[in-house]
């Protein structure tokens, strides 16, 4: 069964809590207090690890406060983690890596392997004084759990053909894909991505937060039907969870 023992909670936009079969909590793209969709009870939640796909404020806007209540590793592309270290984040927690690399977090108490994959987007952080700092490339992740099953987190991206190789190499059964359009894939591109990767289920994200993000899960279902892709769309409300 896809992701047996794993629970995924959507906190709105592209922020997720992923609970491993061992009960460890991974926070993906910590945008909490500033996220209009995130339920208040999740702000300040203690977690065991953090994964950052890229540096835009709507993905790591609360990284500094989240880092304080994270007991374990904080994973991102090298440029981003290095910058966070210069801004006071505990260097012992920071795990800088790059695309194509795989790191095991088992020695830090979280029994997963994380592979960084390609994404086509941009990556910068807007400081409080209006300075725009570029912080390396955007990325995605494949998270492999102790049961051998894998989850693909696309991050912010458009459709690209090498997604097929991600499917062949890592065989994820479930994927988290953006569908909002304007800044990322729209539902049609996301449907093609899910089919290319060979997903059984897809969790849509990065939609509905702002008027510009017009894609909807219903449109994703229609586009999957149009191309004959046998992929289930798992639609979550902010704060809701799916357990396998």
SSE blueprint:
Blueprint: E1 7-10, E2 16-19, E3 25-28, E4 49-51, H1 57-60, H2 63-68, E5 74-77, H3 78-86, E6 94-97, E7 102-104, E8 112-118, E9 124-126, E10 132-134, E11 139-145, E12 150-153, H4 163-170, E13 174-178, H5 187-197, E14 201-205, H6 217-226, E15 232-233, E16 241-243
Parallel strand pairs: 3-4, 4-5, 5-6, 12-13, 13-14, 14-15
Antiparallel strand pairs: 1-2, 1-16, 2-3, 7-8, 8-11, 9-10, 11-12
Helix pairs in contact: 5-6
Question: What would you say about this model in short?
Answer:
This protein is an alpha/beta fold. Helices cover 20% and strands 27% of the residues. It has a single domain, classed as Ribonuclease Z/Hydroxyacylglutathione hydrolase-like (Metallo-beta-lactamase, Chain A), CATH 3.60.15.10.
């Amino acid at each position: 069964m896809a992701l047996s023992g794993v629970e995924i909670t959507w906190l709105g936009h592209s922020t997720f809590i992923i609970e491993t079969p061992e009960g460890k909590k991974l926070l993906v793209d910590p945008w909490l207090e500033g996220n209009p969709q995130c339920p208040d009870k999740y702000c300040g939640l203690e977690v065991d690890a953090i994964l950052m796909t890229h540096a835009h404020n709507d993905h790591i806007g609360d990284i500094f406060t989240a880092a304080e209540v994270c007991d374990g590793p904080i994973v991102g592309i090298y440029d981003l983690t290095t910058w966070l270290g210069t801004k006071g984040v505990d260097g012992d927690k920071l795990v800088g890596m790059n695309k194509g690399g795989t790191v095991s977090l088992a020695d830090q108490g979280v029994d997963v392997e994380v592979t960084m994959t390609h994404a086509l987007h941009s990556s910068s952080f807007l400081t409080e004084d209006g300075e725009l700092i570029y912080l390396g490339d955007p990325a995605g992740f494949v998270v492999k759990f102790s049961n051998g099953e894998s989850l693909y987190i696309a991050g912010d991206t458009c459709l690209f053909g090498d997604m097929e190789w991600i499917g062949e190499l890592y065989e994820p059964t479930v994927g988290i894909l953006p569908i909002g359009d304007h800044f990322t894939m729209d539902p049609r591109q996301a449907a093609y991505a899910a089919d290319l990767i060979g997903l059984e289920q897809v969790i849509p994200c990065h939609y509905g937060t702002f008027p510009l993000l017009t894609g909807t899960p219903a449109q994703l279902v229609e586009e999957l039907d149009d191309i004959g892709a046998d992929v289930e769309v798992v639609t979550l409300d902010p704060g809701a969870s799916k357990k396998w």
